[in-house]
């Protein structure tokens, strides 16, 4: 096979997306050629695939910040033909061609072996969303979060939020409050593990004060912006919030009072540049949790990406979207 299909964004002569034919690439030292089985759709992928997303700096580009697949050629001694591998983050799909391609050349420094108890499909059901959700949960457990604490998860119907709910439930947490504006998400979020599913307006006080009633212990925030601003004053003494998204905006308007009078912490979570040596143990932890088959998943082919991306940017996306890269319609 000398050519393969890839989803590409380009800005010449104007911004557009298309399915293109590409030639098989040549490998340099420490590079690996992967036959991609699956990718997924994250908010960052949607931004990368839109003209005003501000993610892509150099065109043309193949988006897809995640991939799983099988090694077909390797110039890296750590990987051999037929190895099952996965890759999330780094510059994939942003500065280097990404997972929306039937074959992809990647740095061996970015790849990790697929955990034995995880399938290629399950790896991308989780993807960056699952990896980020686990980082959030682990950070709060390190801070002191207990299974009886009241935990709010924002953007709960999205990929990171819904996966965080599933992880918390699997770990035995008993008071998980999922915030979502999508009424159609209520039942599946409860099935996933949420004890309560509320819209932000139902949960938040009418007026945001510098210090409100201490009604929650921890927050996993995937949204940012005004919603996080309103939640910080409600966190109880010695609590914390993790912040990993900006779909609600990049500005945070708050006071110092929750931090200096209640000893709370705001913990930033980055999943892109997690050191390589830490990644396999984190993915093994995800595999051991065995939550991939519990998540709300839609599977699509490459040609369906534009419609799904449009819906995600419009706030209509739910759960996880798996991209079956090898399937063409």
TrEMBL record:
Can you provide one Gene Ontology molecular function annotated for this UniProt record?
Answer: acryloyl-CoA reductase (NADPH) activity
* InterPro entries on file: Acrylyl-CoA_reductase_AcuI, ADH-like_C, ADH-like_N, ER, GroES-like_sf, NAD(P)-bd_dom_sf, Zn-ADH-like_protein
- Among the Pfam families in the record, one is ADH_N
Q: Which Gene3D superfamilies match?
A: Medium-chain alcohol dehydrogenases, catalytic domain, NAD(P)-binding Rossmann-like Domain
User: What EC number(s) does its UniProt record assign?
Assistant: 1.6.5.-
The record's keywords, sorted A to Z, are: Oxidoreductase
Q: What class of enzyme is it?
A: oxidoreductase
Tell me the leader sequence span. Answer: none
Q: NCBIfam families this protein is in?
A: oxido_YhdH
Q: What is this protein called?
A: Zinc-containing alcohol dehydrogenase
Q: What is the lineage of its organism?
A: Bacteria, Bacillati, Bacillota, Bacilli, Lactobacillales
């Amino acid at each position: 096979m000398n050519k393969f299909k890839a989803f590409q964004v380009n800005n010449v002569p104007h911004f557009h997306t298309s399915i293109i034919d590409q030639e098989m690439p040549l490998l340099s030292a420490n590079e690996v050629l992967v036959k991609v089985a699956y990718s997924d759709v994250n908010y960052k992928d949607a931004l990368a695939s839109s003209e005003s997303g501000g993610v892509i700096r150099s065109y043309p580009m193949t988006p897809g910040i995640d991939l799983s697949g099988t090694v077909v050629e390797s110039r890296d001694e750590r990987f051999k033909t037929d190895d099952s591998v996965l890759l999330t983050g780094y510059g994939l799909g942003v500065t280097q061609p990404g997972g929306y391609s039937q074959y992809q050349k990647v740095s061996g420094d970015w790849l990790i072996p697929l955990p034995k108890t995880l399938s290629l499909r399950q790896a991308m059901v989780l993807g960056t969303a699952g990896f980020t959700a686990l980082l959030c949960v682990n950070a709060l457990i390190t801070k002191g979060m207990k299974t009886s604490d009241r935990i709010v998860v924002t953007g709960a119907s999205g990929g990171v939020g819904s996966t965080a709910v599933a992880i918390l439930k699997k770990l035995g947490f008993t008071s998980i409050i999922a915030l979502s504006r999508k009424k159609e998400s209520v039942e599946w979020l409860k099935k996933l593990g949420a004890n309560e599913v509320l819209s932000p307006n139902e949960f938040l006080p009418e007026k945001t004060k510098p210090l409100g009633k201490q009604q929650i212990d921890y927050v996993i925030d995937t949204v940012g912006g005004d919603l996080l601003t309103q939640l910080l004053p409600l966190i109880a003494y010695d609590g914390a919030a993790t912040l990993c998204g900006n779909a609600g905006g990049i500005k945070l308007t708050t006071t110092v009072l929750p931090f200096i009078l209640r000893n709370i912490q705001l913990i930033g979570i980055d999943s892109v540049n997690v050191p390589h040596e830490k990644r396999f143990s984190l993915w093994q932890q995800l595999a051991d949790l065995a939550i991939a088959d519990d998540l709300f998943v839609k599977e699509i082919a490459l040609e369906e990406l534009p419609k799904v991306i449009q819906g995600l940017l419009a706030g209509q996306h739910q759960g996880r979207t798996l991209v079956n890269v090898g399937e063409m319609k």
